[in-house]
Design brief:
There is one protein chain. The chain is mainly α. It has 2 domains: 22-85, Orthogonal Bundle (Helix Hairpins), CATH 1.10.287; 96-199, 3-Layer(bab) Sandwich (minor pseudopilin epsh fold), CATH 3.55.40.20. 52% of the residues lie in helices and 12% in strands. It contains 8 helices and 3 strands. Strands 2-1-3 form a 3-stranded antiparallel beta sheet. A hairpin with a 2-residue loop joins strand 1 and strand 2. Helix 1 (22-46) runs antiparallel to helix 3 (67-85) and helix 2 (54-63) crosses helix 3 (67-85). It starts with 21 loop residues before the first helix and ends with a helix. The model has no long low-confidence stretch (mean pLDDT 98). The chain binds manganese (III) ion (MN3). Manganese (III) ion is lined by residues 28, 32, 79, 161, 163, 165-166.
Length: 200
């Protein structure tokens, strides 16, 4: 049976300051993500799930409207992605191959960034905004609550958590400022490019 485990952050808790505080990471990783792991394991065990991968559990529980499993396990993979895709990288350069693809599919890097910010702003309530690969084309999308793009057959390259717990300590209610700061300062573009070249 699959057992979820909370991964360590790939950096120290103060590594993303001043863009994301140690206090936010402590709450978000140690409390919120831990709760998804604890509850996910509880429901996987209670329901005796036999899937052999975490992604299969996400896709099947989505199809079956199995909300207790889906919400926790999908949030688990969302957060693993989120931790890995961030770094303290103000004005970080986008590797050439990915930059060409962005320019090709959006017109410009600025247009992609604007679309990404706007997707996050217009996600009503909790959820995520994403840069995904959809049949070989880059797209910006948004999803409610725990939804990961894989349930729609999309490959997530970059996701930003717009649940209030991700920004309230640092930005209060100013979600647009959080999103702009995220896309300009907190994206590990090398890692996004890695995901892109792996899946393109
Ligand atoms: Mn979160």
């Amino acid at each position: 049976m699959i057992k979820l485990e909370l991964p360590d952050l790939p950096y120290s808790k103060d590594a993303l300051q001043p863009f994301m505080s140690a206090e936010t990471l402590e709450l978000h990783h140690d409390k919120h993500h831990q709760a998804y792991v604890t509850n996910g394991n509880k429901f996987i065990e209670e329901q005796n799930l036999s899937e052999s991968s975490i992604n299969e559990i996400v896709i099947n529980s989505y199809k079956n409207n199995n909300a207790p499993v889906f919400n926790n396990v999908s949030q688990h993979i969302n957060h693993i992605h989120f931790w890995e895709i961030m770094s303290n990288n103000p004005e970080g350069k986008i590797p050439g191959e990915l930059e060409s693809k962005i320019t090709n599919d959006f017109g410009s890097v600025d247009q992609m960034k604007n679309d990404f910010i706007n997707a996050g702003i217009t996600q009503f309530g909790s959820g995520w905004c994403w840069l995904v690969l959809n049949n070989g084309k880059l797209e910006v999308t948004k999803t409610p609550n725990a939804e990961n793009p894989i349930v729609h057959g999309h490959i997530p390259l970059l996701g930003c958590d717009v649940w209030e717990h991700s920004y309230y300590v640092d930005f209060k209610n100013r979600r647009p400022d959080y999103l702009k700061s995220f896309i300009d300062n907190l994206v590990n573009w090398e890692k996004v490019n890695e995901e892109f070249t792996k899946n393109n």
